[in-house]
Design goal:
The complex is a heterodimer of chains A (259) and B (250). Chain A has 259 residues and is α+β, with helices and mostly antiparallel strands. Chain A has a single domain, classed as GHMP Kinase, N-terminal domain (Ribosomal Protein S5, domain 2, 2-Layer Sandwich), CATH 3.30.230. Chain A is 29% helix and 34% strand. Chain A is built from six helices and eleven strands. In chain A, helix 2 crosses helix 4. Chain B has 250 residues and is of the alpha+beta class. In chain B, the strands form two sheets. Chain B has a five-stranded mixed beta sheet with strand order 1-2-3-5-4. Chain B has a four-stranded antiparallel beta sheet with strand order 7-6-8-9. The longest helix of chain B is centred in the C-terminal third of the chain and has 30 residues. Chain B is globular. Classes of the chains: A alpha+beta (259), B alpha+beta (250). At the A-B interface, helix 2, strand 10, strand 11 and helix 6 of A face helix 1, strand 8, strand 9 and helix 4 of B.
């Protein structure tokens, strides 16, 4: 988009002087607002805004056949919808490489950290051998920059909001809850964009367009790194990766505390 | 993928299941210029992985609206053949995992190729995994990097990829399929060895910061060894006594 190109020059000029268009510090998150239980029909949900970026995460539970190579494990699956409502350039259609990447990066952090102990949950099997299936859908509603961190925060908040329905035979009795979905720990993703050789945390849309590359680190609330993803053309050094990790432990965990 | 703690990944003698030490690579063979039609091509084998990469371009952009006025765009396609794994026959064509891998590999070449020399064109990279055994995206990237040079396209560097991870409680390089599936972490990474920069980096599992530090350091060292194979493959075609009509895929 033409207006994006004009803004790009402005953002880059400002960045050379170490400033951001909205006056934030280079490593400051925008304000996060989290509303859990936003969709009472779902087993769990959270509407999260990070600045103007808005993502709604919904969790639906079901009874499903387990994966053939993991017959005693519950199943969790992440999908992202880049709704055309969210940005003038978003088109309706099957997931593109951006929405697939986002879903897989959020998935990777939560799965690697075993936020949900799928083996433990898999012990609850129906007569027909079905296990619990957890579907997390990340609905992008307003693309104003840094969808990954917003979606990861929304996923975590939605999972914390999720209640387990009663299992009767081969069916779930929805709205008849037995307790919360048991979680072992929390995970958050922190994304850094590099612009004109400088690095910012929580890029706005304009900063994303102007960016040369992105690095996302996902960390747990008990001090481990559980996922990372480099995206975009810019290269990163080992020192930068380690620095991003430190910042993620500080700023990312602070973000989790908003839930 | 992070695995269960039950699967033993270390032998009683402390070596990895296939007898390797932490910094040992599997057997590698690389050959450049294996296809007739593609502008550039390469076949890479790392362990049991067999990957073939082909490059076309610079050529017309399809679909046209993707054309950039000031540079070539990179289009990248990574797919695994349905017969490539030990499991049942897979479905043909790209899936979500393939699309993500295609994207991250594309970004490597957006950096490495001098795209501004070819405005309004596309450079197409195709990577086909013929047989898989842990580390396919790494083998694919190494092949694509060779294919790019074979195609005569100007690049800042020959990019070298290697996988690093943690299995059996130690940080290791070049993960086998078992180590990838049942270990504690998997980190495919690619370097521009000229500058030492990371151009591809993905991580899953659970690591401390010190382990990440160690992993990247070990990856860098291992990449230097992989790079020797890439250079040898190029020298064999372009500077060696090889009959230039020999493009067998042995």
């Amino acid at each position: 988009m033409i207006v994006d190109e004009v803004n790009k020059a402005y953002v880059r000029d400002l960045m050379r002087t170490g400033k951001r268009a909205d006056g934030r510090g280079m490593l400051d998150y925008r304000q996060a607002v989290i509303q859990q239980g936003y969709v009472p029909n779902a087993e769990g949900s959270a509407m999260v805004s990070l600045g103007d970026t808005k993502v709604l995460a919904g969790v639906k539970l079901d009874l499903v056949a387990p994966f053939p190579d993991r017959p005693d494990e519950a199943v969790i699956s992440f999908n992202a919808e880049f709704s055309p409502i969210a940005h003038p350039t978003f088109e309706a259609g099957p997931p593109n490489e951006h929405s697939i990447e986002l879903a897989r990066v959020v998935d990777r952090g939560i799965r690697s950290a075993e936020v949900i102990n799928l083996k433990q949950l898999g012990k609850t099997k129906t007569e027909a051998g079905k296990v619990l299936g957890i579907y997390v859908d990340l609905y992008i509603l307003d693309q104003c920059g840094n969808l990954i961190d917003c979606a990861a925060l929304a996923a975590m908040a939605a999972l914390r909001n999720t209640q387990m329905p009663k299992i009767e035979g081969e069916k779930l009795v929805r709205l008849d809850f037995t307790g919360p979905l048991p979680l072992t720990r929390q995970v958050i993703a922190c994304s850094f964009e590099t612009i004109e050789g400088k690095v910012v945390l929580d890029a706005s849309y304009g900063e994303e367009v102007a960016s040369d590359g992105r690095f996302t680190v996902s960390v747990t609330d008990d001090g481990k790194i559980c996922a990372s993803q480099k995206s975009g053309a810019a290269g990163f050094t080992k020192e930068q990766v380690l620095e991003f990790t430190d910042i993620a432990f500080e700023k990312g965990i602070a973000l989790l505390e908003k839930i | 993928m992070v695995g269960s703690g039950d699967f033993k990944l270390l032998r009683d003698d402390g070596k990895r299941l296939d007898g390797r030490g932490p910094m040992d690579l599997r057997e590698i063979s690389m050959k450049v210029g294996v296809l007739k039609q593609a502008a550039g091509s390469a076949m890479v084998q790392m362990g049991k992985n067999k990957v073939i990469a082909g490059v076309y371009g610079p050529r017309e952009v399809f679909p046209k609206f993707l054309t950039k006025p000031d540079r070539a765009i990179i289009q990248c396609r990574y797919v695994m053949a349905p017969f490539s794994g030990l499991e049942d026959h897979g479905r043909s064509g790209p899936n979500r995992r393939s699309q993500e891998i295609s994207k991250v590999i594309k970004h490597v070449f957006e950096n490495a190729v001098l795209v501004h020399q070819f405005p309004k064109t596309a450079i197409n990279i195709s990577m086909e995994v013929l047989q898989s055994d842990g580390g396919t995206r790494v083998a694919s990237l190494n092949a694509a990097a060779l294919a790019m040079v074979d195609a005569g396209l100007p690049v800042k560097d020959i990019i070298t990829a290697v996988s690093v991870g943690k299995a059996g409680g130690q940080v290791i390089v070049d993960l086998s399929k078992e180590e990838d599936n049942h270990g504690q972490s998997d980190i495919p990474m690619a370097f521009s060895l000229r500058t030492g920069e990371l151009l591809l980096y993905q991580m899953d599992g659970l690591l401390t910061k010190d382990e990440v530090d160690q992993a990247i350091t070990m990856g860098h060292e291992a990449a230097k060894k992989v790079r020797e194979f890439q250079e040898a493959a190029l020298i064999e075609k372009y500077a060696g006594n090889q009959n230039s009509a020999d493009n067998s895929m042995q």
